[in-house]
Amino acid sequence: MTDKPNHLGEYLRARRELVTAEQAGLADVGRRRVSGLRREEVAMLAGISVDYYLRLERGRDRNPSVQVLRSIARVLQLDDEHMTYLLSLVADDPRRTRRRPRRETAPASTAKLLSALPHPAFVEGRYFDILAANATATALSPRLSVGGNQLLDVFLDPAEQTLHLDWDGTTKCYVASLRRSVGTDTDDQRFIELIGELSLASPRFRTLWNRHDVSTQRGTSVPFDHPQVGEMRLHRERLAISGTDGITLVIYHAEAGSADAEKLALLGSSALTPTESSSDNGISRIRRPSVGGHD
């Protein structure tokens, strides 16, 4: 045994519990003590021994072949993105050099670009910390300002929850994206503190985190219910910033000529001076919103 985190075993167990006997093509006979498939059922359907599968879940064997993993993935009904994530858990090299913790900052050129953009735009770090934002972004949500954290806000702040019409979908997307981004790099102190706070304060977060869903955030449309201009749907674009480690530029925009575009323009016209990160822009001032709302 080893003290190294058992990422592979945790993932297999979480995904196994999400697949029912019926979904796997098995007769659901008798009372089941587990919410999903039994370990022996996964082993049988994957064509491996029960003992070997137990070794994988318990971390006693951390180097299964790709063929074995693909067989298990088929049983657990993993899509391509989840399969890629599964393979990454095995590919992790315990001898690799861990990144030294460092404060995330928005590149100066990107921070200056924000003030020139007519749309809500902000820079976020790996853990959804707001590193820089323009005035229109803050007009869209006051929480989109330097020192804020989108995860804390969307799970714990009632005002942010009300803003998102599809709160369930938004929270699911955020958590799956976080897990995909972090992967096996779970010893970062910022990550540990964030997950700890959310797990204690939000039942919804605990439920989603325990599912081990993974997803890459892509361009999509997001419905809002803004307290000043009402309901509108905005397109969200996420652009990786070159030369950084997971820092992203996020831009919201509306369909040209639409009522949503008019509402967004109204918000933009009411925006004050840009809220950009200063010379010490970073994540040292993380706000802690009040607990409430959906949870």
Strand-residue fraction?
Answer: 5-15%
Query: What's the total number of strands?
Result: 5
User: Helix tally?
Assistant: 13
Principal-axes shape call: elongated
Largest β-sheet summary: 5 strands, antiparallel
Annotated CATH topology of the largest domain: Beta-Lactamase
Low-confidence stretches: 93-98, 273-292
How many domain modules?
Answer: 2
SS-based class: alpha+beta
Strand order of the largest sheet: 2-1-5-4-3
CATH architecture title of the largest domain: 2-Layer Sandwich
Evaluate the radius of gyration.
Answer: 22 Å
Report the span from N to C terminus: 38 Å
Q: How confident overall, as mean pLDDT?
A: 84
Report the CATH C-level class of the largest domain.
Alpha Beta
Secondary-structure element order, N to C: HHHHHHEEHHHHHHEEEH
Work out the helicity level: 40-55%
Describe the structure concisely.
By secondary structure, this protein is α+β, with helices and mostly antiparallel strands. Helices cover 43% and strands 11% of the residues. The chain has a five-stranded antiparallel sheet.
Tell me about this structure.
It is a single chain. The chain has 295 residues and is of the alpha+beta class. It has two domains: 7-91, 434 Repressor (Amino-terminal Domain) (Orthogonal Bundle), CATH 1.10.260; 108-270, Beta-Lactamase. Helices cover 43% and strands 11% of the residues. It contains 13 helices and five strands. The chain has helices at residues 7-16, 39-46, 50-57, 66-75, 80-91, 108-116, 135-140, 150-156, 158-163, 167-182, 189-201, 203-211, 259-270, and strands at 121-124, 130-133, 220-226, 230-240, 248-253. Strands 2-1-5-4-3 form a five-stranded antiparallel sheet. Strand 4 (230-240) and strand 5 form a beta hairpin. Helix 2 (39-46) crosses helix 3 (50-57). The longest helix has 16 residues, at 167-182. 32% of the residues are buried.
